[in-house]
Amino acid sequence: MSKNYEAIKAHYAGSDTKDLDAMMAPLTATTAWTEMAGFPCAGTYVGVPAIIEGVFKRLGEEWDGYNFKLERLVDGDGTIVGIGTYSGTYRKTGKVMTARVVHVWDMKDSKVLRFEQFTDTKLVAAAMN
């Protein structure tokens, strides 16, 4: 497996144990992180502080048990693809959400250049309404 693959595998391992430092390890000050339009924290965030504040902090505040379960990790050397499922309960409504998701990681030298998320935002929105 490539070093890029190993870096993202370690990111997901950190996610499983709620280790934010491990999750952020392959990100840089110039990493562009894009959450899909229609997702609760849609937009592009650049740099670790913006990504934590705009994505991970919001998800933690708005959802109970928010989780990503990785099912498959594809090594494309410069592009790594994570396939899995989101789940959680939206605090304001008490509704449960489960949605399939694909993460695309563009990498260079074990560091994330760009991240883009693709998911069924309708399923997420249904839990929020």
Q: How would you describe the shape?
A: globular
Strand order of the largest sheet: 2-1-6-5-4-3
Helix amount: 25-40%
What is the count of β-strands? 6
- Topology order in helix (H) and strand (E) letters: HHEEHEEEEH
From the helix content, strand content and strand pairing, which structural class follows?
alpha+beta
The share of residues in extended strands comes to: 35-45%
Quaternary structure: single chain
Span between termini: 42 Å
Gyration radius, to the nearest Å? Answer: 14 Å
| Main sheet record | 6 strands, mixed
Counting H and I runs of at least 4 residues, what is the number of helices? 4
Mean pLDDT: 97
Summarize the structure.
With 129 residues, the protein is α+β, with helices and mostly antiparallel strands.
